[in-house]
């Protein structure tokens, strides 16, 4: 299956290009834990699953399922996309509470 995204307007005089996403190899998984670290050259996001949700005491068991490593520039774009997504979400469903 291939998804198409709308052309992006860069403000330049170049012709707009369509972005085609190849989802044929995509896998989905549920994650309820995320943490992030960074160096000067990269940002690392770890996504995992809290296996100890029903244990009130003791150590938490977090199974890290995915690690995404990106440049700071890609992380900045991700931040912009997430801010836009969450703003839209809160307009539809109300503010998220901590």
Give a short summary of the structure.
The chain is 22% helix and 32% strand.
Molecular structure report:
The chain has 98 residues and is of the alpha+beta class. The protein contains one helix and five strands, in the order βββββα. It has a domain of 66 residues: Roll (Transcriptional Co-activator pc4, Chain A). A hairpin with a 4-residue loop joins strand 3 and strand 4. The radius of gyration is 18 Å and the shape is extended.
Nearest-angstrom radius of gyration?
A: 18 Å
Instruction: Specify the structural class.
Output: alpha+beta
Q: Main β-sheet, in a few words?
A: 3 strands, antiparallel
* Envelope shape: extended
- Give the total of beta strands: 5
Query: Total number of helical segments?
Result: 1
Record the strand order, biggest sheet.
3-4-5
How much is the average pLDDT? 88
CATH topology of the domain at 28-93: Transcriptional Co-activator pc4, Chain A
Report how far the terminal alpha carbons are from each other.
Answer: 37 Å
What is the N-to-C order of secondary-structure elements (H for helix, E for strand)?
A: EEEEEH
């Amino acid at each position: 299956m291939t998804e198409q995204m709308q052309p992006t307007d860069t403000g330049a005089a170049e012709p707009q290009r369509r972005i085609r996403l190849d989802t044929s190899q995509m896998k989905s998984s549920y994650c309820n834990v995320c943490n992030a670290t960074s160096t000067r050259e990269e940002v690392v996001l770890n996504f995992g699953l809290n296996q100890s949700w029903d244990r009130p005491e003791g150590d938490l068991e977090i199974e890290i399922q995915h690690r995404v490593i990106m440049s700071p520039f890609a992380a900045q774009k991700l931040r912009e996309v997430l801010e836009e997504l969450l703003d839209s979400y809160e307009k539809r469903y109300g503010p998220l509470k901590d």
